[in-house]
Amino acid sequence: MELVLPQIDWAPFAPLLPVALGGLTALVAELFLPPGRKHLIAILSLIALAASILLSISSWGPVLDPDQGMVRYGLHDAVVLDRFSLFFYLMLGLIGILTVLLSMGYLDTAAADQGEYYSLVLFSALGMMLMAAGGDLIVIFLGLETFSLGLYTLAGFWKTELRSNESALKYLLLGAFASGFFLYGIALIYGATGTTVLRQIAAFLADGHPPAPLFLIGGGLLLVGFGFKIASVPFHMWAPDVYEGAPTSITAFMIAGTKAAAFAAFLRVFLLAVPSLHVQWLVAIWVLAVLTMTVGNLVALVQSNIKRMLAYSSIAHAGYLLVALVAGGSSGVAGILFYLVAYALMNLGVFAVIIALQGHERERLLLTDYAGLGWQRPVLAACMAVFMFSLAGIPPTAGFMGKLYIFSAALEGDYPGLAVIGVLNSVVSVYFYLRVIVIMYMSDAASPPSLVPASAAAVLAVVVSVLGTLHLGLFPARLLDLARQSVSAITG
């Protein structure tokens, strides 16, 4: 009997290949480069991510096959190439580039093993992209584990620092626990439907098969796994300690990339595979959104460490994104995509300022360390102020437009109460964001630190982030249009 090998369409994998090859090359290149040339590994990583972005842009229109409804599948529906996955490829590529720029000056101050570091960053980005493109629950799980394993290692990259080791251990233990929930949920869904392919699950339910209790339990376990990755309450316990102890550049990567990848898979699973169960999981998401917004903002009020404050801030922002998920529809999902880009730019910008201020000194992690910064470093302080205004949702910044779209989607979806709760939480958050600005401009430093020139790469990351934050606040229409084009793949 002749063995017939399956035909593989490599087009869905094209934007992933440069990142995978870049990760492998970065790992090997360190063996052959002298210590003074380690920055070439960072440049190689930037080239790999830029190549992925260019391939994603080229795939947006002509590469997609109109006969398949602007969707292409690889490996029997396991990997999906559509505008939804391409949108996240572009976003994650940008997040990866900004992370590498943050890391270039940051690693030079600590003489770390740069080949391993950049390789892990690229493999983590690869896992995030795979998670966004997953058309099968198993592929989504593989993507989740790929980026999680890289981040477990990166969180503990400062091997001689106790807080970094503690961060990695907590993330590993709680992450493994959450992965167990996610994998068990996949097993139950397979037991109820006989498949793990998302569009086959959707077809199974559309044929009139009532969802079995086994299926509903499996969906609940998936929700727990996603809730951990987006740091929603009550699955948020790991975030403050992990973000505080991890290297600052990795905290920035985690705070932006993890949330983007998790929401990409979240949206694809719950809107493509199980749209008919909207009513069943709507109440749970509503409760999670309210708890996540409220707890994140209230606890952030009392933080004195800027990384912990931003950790609880990220929890609150996950709640805002869940508001749009409850609203559903093309407006809600497009609002999530727009907000994720804005969220990534403003958070990466804040961490870029923190790293740019570090130089060869200790990191400025306490809020009091920023006293007098407005007069010591006026340009960096002004950029920090822009990011804080954006996080608070004050116009004309990207954060304001993102919240406007999300709360508008809630009103459009007939959830006025949820929109009101979101607006009230946003008002509460203004206090701790503006507190940073007040400290920078209205407090005097007890002992002014020595002014050390900032890393050129970190300054470039600050410039890109602040320009992006202001551009999306003043001219949001183009990105929102791209987001709307992207969501048609999963919302019809």
What does it look like?
The chain is 74% helix and 1% strand. It has helices at residues 17-29, 39-63, 83-108, 114-133, 137-155, 162-193, 198-206, 213-229, 238-245, 248-273, 278-300, 306-327, 329-358, 373-376, 378-392, 398-412, 416-442, 456-474, 477-491; strands at 72-74, 79-81. Strand 1 (72-74) and strand 2 form a beta hairpin. The model has no long low-confidence stretch (mean pLDDT 86). The two termini are 43 Å apart. It has 492 residues and is mainly alpha-helical. It is built from 19 helices and two strands. Strands 1-2 form a two-stranded antiparallel sheet. It has one domain (11-491).
Using brief descriptors, characterize the structure shown:
492 residues, two-stranded antiparallel ribbon, 2 strands, 74% helix, 19 helices, globular, mainly alpha, 1% strand
Shape: globular
The total count of strands amounts to 2
Helix/strand structural class: mainly alpha
Unreliable residue runs: none
User: Order of strands in the sheet with the most strands?
Assistant: 1-2
Helix share bin: over 70%
Distance between the termini: 43 Å
Order of helices and strands: HHEEHHHHHHHHHHHHHHHHH
| Tally of individual helices | 19
> How many domains comprise the coordinates?
1
What proportion of the residues form beta strands (DSSP E)?
Answer: under 5%
Global Rg = 22 Å
- Major pleated sheet: 2 strands, antiparallel
Overall average residue pLDDT: 86
